[in-house]
Inverse folding.
């Protein structure tokens, strides 16, 4: 039995990798006690005692014997003694990694000594200045290099980890971080406006995944479409599209728990890493790229540029890096919407009694007196247009200082901005309420066509319908800033200390000005019989492009919203390597605060006929399946502003504002060990994490400040075990207790509604909520075959022992609210409703201890086809499949898969990626009588390629959503089995051509 001291074996007949604290100077004198033994043991033992990093092909060292190294001597001399007689030679990289390669002796047929290695995945590798002139290293770069590095990280991790590594400097595999992460097993992505925004991991919604940036948990909020269910993100979900992918060079996704991983993500933790100067082998590195992004729908080419400069000084003791990425993105989202189907009976009314012509037989399943009132029809059938003009800028800076081989200090700074200018136009026909026409509502039915199911009104014609033309202008700004100072100090050969302190602020706001232009009553007919998504429509003699038909305007919304998220984090970790075990312990402190505020502007009515303009695009509806979309006149925001119709400024809506803060103090202890069991190696990681959470919820209620404070504790044990059955076969098992704190909207106390005569309370959050908690089990088998192949199966089960639900409960009102209630003019002592004396009935979110579960499995298969002859050997595949089932399945796709076929050479490479997920639940119950609302699971196809014009200049050509996949939301009716489209839209395919230069 022997303990884990740092050496790590990468299986699959590939690399023997030994990892210790980074060291640059090989002239440091160390004490060695390494006996002569097999190279598989001797090399890791030497590296641990020398505190260096070694990498070597396992098949190269297999069968070799390393020599004894005894006594005090420089590392360089010790390594020379160790390798004597092995025919292995070291190739030193400036980042501290030493590659061990086999040297073939000189012969007549081979007059020059050649260093030969297996493929080494190093996206930034080049000939090292320290290498002898006759040495060469075969390096895997590009797509294969990225996959191989991710494979190595997964192989040596103590817990279940997936990684995404940049193919090259400043080149993540996709232009959007969420789109890169979606290719990982167990991950599904939601797109908005044609770009990835949030992820779900193993069936859990975005709020259940914790995200860190350079080791610190961070917030990220941005604006969104109402149709996507998000306006301004005030929750825990991380908006990945806020950041340019060029700013990052690695993403790790931790799927199982470790005590040293901070709590918060039941689904898992996503760790983002930006580049640092000591990441690069050369002392001076420059990478620059420029791209043009052409969208097939808006037919516009937008620019995207990035620059990275890194330099080290003073013999590698100082390093400085700066990077910037900027892009413009024009997106048109076009389609057709019903704004949900509903029936008059479900809506509480009935059709006007006009004796329409009826084709087909309506079912009277709803029990209405008139069977026609049971028929489901579109509420507000409309053509939709969303025009987005996005500007994104990201900056990173990193300073590193290595005063000695045993100390490293790093300062990371990141700034990102995402600004979006959106104009939205919709032509709604008023079928929302049913009955006699008048006051811009109601209609006169002329004819009905009943669907074969007897429940849907697939076609209808009306007189006296009013059009409500919606025009919106939304401007949003999201600004993110992070500063992190971290340090690593090796006190001696056994003790290492790490510390980090950082702050992150995300400030997002949005202004919205929205009008409803209402028309004269007119004829309107729709027909879904030939297309269930986009109907044929007819207006008779009515012209939606005649401004004189617009006779009334309402200012539906004029407001500003702001969400500010602030995180302060500090952490201290200590690692002690004993003779038989490695211990790690640490403390962490987090202070998170989220504040929401809104302001309301004037909302006048006016005559709209003089303030219209033609529809802003000439190709409206092109490329959308179905009969097409008809243009209409829209609000002229410039003319309205020039006329001074809308007074400037906003009035603070103080009662809607709220602040939720969380202060957490955590401590953990963790043990890593390694054992020999019947010739197999068992690697273990076990620990316990404790965290105390203090919640503070603040709001202004009836003009009185109210603050509620709550505290709770959690103990989170975890254990991970990896058994190296063979050098290429790993069996993993893990258990962990995980937690996710309640959503911020459920904790805020703003805007409560008190019913004093009924002694009820509604519209209020519950700061006393305890977090979701889960017992997580993982079992996996991983086969690392060949040089770069991987076949893995993981089965997982998450037992949610505590969750949330909305319930009606009787309880006393928290004393924090009493002053606000007593100050409320509606409160009267005669109601016998004194909150200090009598309980009230609350409708609030509460904890649910009945439990539910999420379970499933993941399969991964990655392999380069190097076994095939000729050009076929340059092909390869990267693929995975995930199946998940859950009792509470919001956001869950039962099945999802990713498939990437690639061709990769030193000069040229290309990949075609297909990502598919099943339909998934959005809400249950759905609105307007639907059992559920669901979203169609799209199939996205992306393409990427490169050609190295010179060793430094690369031409790139890429495509995103090249099949122009549609986005669709639908309701399931009152039976739960209907398919009634709510929204149907597309954004076009994107094609990107660019140049990338590196030095």
């Amino acid at each position: 039995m022997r303990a884990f001291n740092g050496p790590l074996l990468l299986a699959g007949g590939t690399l023997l990798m030994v990892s210790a604290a980074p060291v640059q100077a090989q002239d440091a004198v160390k004490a060695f006690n390494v006996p002569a033994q097999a190279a598989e043991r001797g090399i890791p033992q030497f590296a641990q005692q020398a505190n260096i990093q070694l990498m070597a092909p396992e098949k190269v060292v297999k069968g070799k014997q390393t020599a004894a190294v005894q006594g005090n001597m420089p590392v360089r001399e010790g390594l020379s003694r160790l390798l004597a007689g092995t025919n292995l030679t070291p190739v030193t990289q400036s980042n501290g990694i030493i590659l061990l390669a086999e040297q073939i002796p000189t012969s007549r047929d081979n007059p020059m000594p050649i260093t030969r290695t297996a493929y080494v995945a190093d996206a930034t590798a080049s000939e090292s200045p320290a290498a002898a002139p006759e040495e060469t290293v075969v390096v895997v770069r590009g797509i294969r290099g990225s996959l191989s590095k991710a494979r190595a990280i997964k192989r040596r991790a103590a817990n279940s980890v997936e990684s995404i590594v940049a193919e090259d400097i400043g080149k993540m595999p996709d232009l959007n971080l969420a789109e890169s992460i979606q290719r990982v097993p167990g991950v599904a992505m939601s797109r908005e406006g044609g770009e990835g925004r949030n992820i779900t991991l193993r069936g859990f919604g975005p709020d259940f995944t914790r995200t860190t940036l350079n080791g610190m948990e961070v917030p990220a909020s941005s604006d969104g479409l109402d149709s996507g269910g998000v306006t301004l993100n005030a929750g825990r979900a991380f908006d990945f599209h806020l950041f340019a992918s060029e700013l990052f060079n690695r993403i790790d996704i931790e799927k199982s728990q470790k005590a040293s991983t901070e709590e918060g993500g039941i689904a898992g933790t996503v760790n983002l890493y930006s580049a640092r100067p000591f990441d690069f082998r050369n002392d001076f590195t420059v990478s620059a790229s420029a791209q043009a992004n052409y969208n097939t729908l808006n037919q516009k080419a937008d620019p995207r540029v990035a620059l990275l400069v890194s330099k080290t000084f003073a013999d590698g003791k100082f390093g400085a890096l700066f990077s910037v990425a900027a892009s413009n993105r024009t997106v048109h989202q076009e389609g057709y919407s019903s704004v949900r189907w509903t029936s008059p009976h479900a809506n509480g009314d009935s059709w006007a009694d006009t004796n329409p012509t009826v084709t087909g037989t309506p079912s009277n399943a709803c029990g209405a007196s008139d069977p026609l009132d049971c028929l489901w029809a579109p509420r507000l059938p409309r053509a939709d247009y969303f025009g987005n003009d996005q500007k994104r800028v990201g900056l990173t800076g990193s300073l590193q200082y290595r005063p000695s081989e045993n100390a490293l200090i790093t300062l990371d700074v990141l700034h990102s901005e995402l600004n979006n200018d959106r104009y939205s136009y919709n032509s709604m026909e008023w079928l929302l309420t049913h009955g006699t026409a008048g006051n811009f509502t109601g209609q006169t039915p002329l004819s009905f066509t009943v669907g074969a199911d007897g429940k849907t009104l697939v076609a209808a014609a009306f007189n006296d319908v009013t059009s409500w033309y919606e025009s919106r202008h939304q401007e949003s700004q999201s600004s993110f800033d992070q500063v992190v100072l971290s340090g690593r100090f090796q006190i001696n050969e056994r003790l290492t200390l790490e510390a980090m302190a950082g702050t992150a602020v995300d400030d997002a706001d949005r202004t919205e000005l929205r009008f409803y232009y209402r028309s004269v009553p007119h004829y309107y007919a729709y027909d879904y019989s030939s297309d269930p998504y986009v109907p044929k429509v007819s207006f008779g003699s009515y012209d939606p492009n005649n401004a004189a038909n617009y006779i009334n305007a309402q200012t539906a919304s004029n407001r500003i919203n702001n969400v500010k998220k602030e995180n302060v984090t500090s952490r201290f970790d200590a690692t002690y390597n004993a003779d038989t075990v490695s211990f790690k312990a640490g403390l962490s402190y987090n202070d998170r605060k989220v504040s929401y505020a809104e302001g309301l502007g004037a909302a006048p009515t006016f005559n709209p006929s003089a303030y219209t303009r033609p529809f802003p695009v000439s190709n409206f509806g092109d490329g959308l399946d179905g009969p097409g979309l008809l243009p209409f006149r829209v609000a002229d925001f410039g003319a309205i502003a020039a006329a001074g119709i809308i007074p400037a400024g906003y009035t603070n809506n103080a009662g809607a504002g709220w602040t939720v803060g969380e202060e957490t103090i955590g401590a953990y202890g963790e043990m890593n060990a390694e054992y020999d069991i019947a010739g197999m190696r068992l690697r273990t990681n076990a620990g316990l994490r404790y965290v105390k959470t203090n919640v503070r919820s603040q709001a202004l209620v009836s003009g009185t400040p109210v603050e509620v404070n709550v505290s709770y504790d959690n103990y989170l044990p975890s254990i991970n075990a990896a058994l190296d059955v063979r050098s290429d076969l790993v069996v993993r098992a893990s258990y962990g207790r995980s937690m996710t704190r309640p959503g911020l909207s459920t904790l805020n106390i703003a805007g409560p509604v008190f019913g004093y005569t009924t002694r009820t309370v509604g519209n209020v959050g519950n700061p006393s909520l305890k977090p979701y908690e889960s017992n997580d089990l993982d079992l996996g088998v991983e086969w690392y075959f060949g040089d770069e192949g991987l076949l893995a199966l993981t089965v997982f089960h998450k037992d949610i022992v505590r969750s949330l639900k909305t319930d009606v409960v009787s309880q006393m009102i928290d004393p924090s609210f009493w002053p606000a209630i007593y100050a409320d003019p509606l409160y009267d002592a005669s109601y016998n409703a004194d909150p200090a004396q009598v309980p009230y009935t609350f409708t609030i979110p509460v904890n649910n201890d009945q439990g539910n579960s999420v379970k499933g499995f993941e399969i991964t298969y990655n392999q380069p086809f190097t076994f095939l002859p000729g050009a076929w050997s340059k092909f390869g595949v990267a693929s995975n499949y995930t199946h998940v089932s859950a009792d509470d399945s919001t956001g869950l796709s039962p099945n999802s898969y990713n498939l990437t076929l690639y061709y990769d050479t030193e000069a040229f490479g290309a990949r075609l990626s297909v990502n598919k997920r099943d339909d998934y639940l959005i809400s249950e119950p759905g609105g307007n009588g639907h059992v559920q609302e669901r979203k169609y699971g799209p199939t996205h196809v992306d393409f990427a390629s490169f050609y190295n014009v010179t060793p430094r200049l690369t031409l790139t050509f890429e495509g995103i959503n090249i099949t122009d996949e549609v986005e669709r939301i639908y309701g399931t009716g009152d039976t739960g089995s209907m398919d009634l489209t709510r929204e149907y839209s597309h954004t076009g395919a994107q094609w990107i051509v660019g140049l990338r230069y590196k030095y």
The radius of gyration is 32 Å. Residues 1-25, 104-139 have pLDDT under 50 and may be disordered. The CA atoms of residues 445 and 690 lie 66 Å apart. Helices lie at 39-50, 58-61, 75-83, 142-156, 177-181, 637-643, 744-747, 818-823.
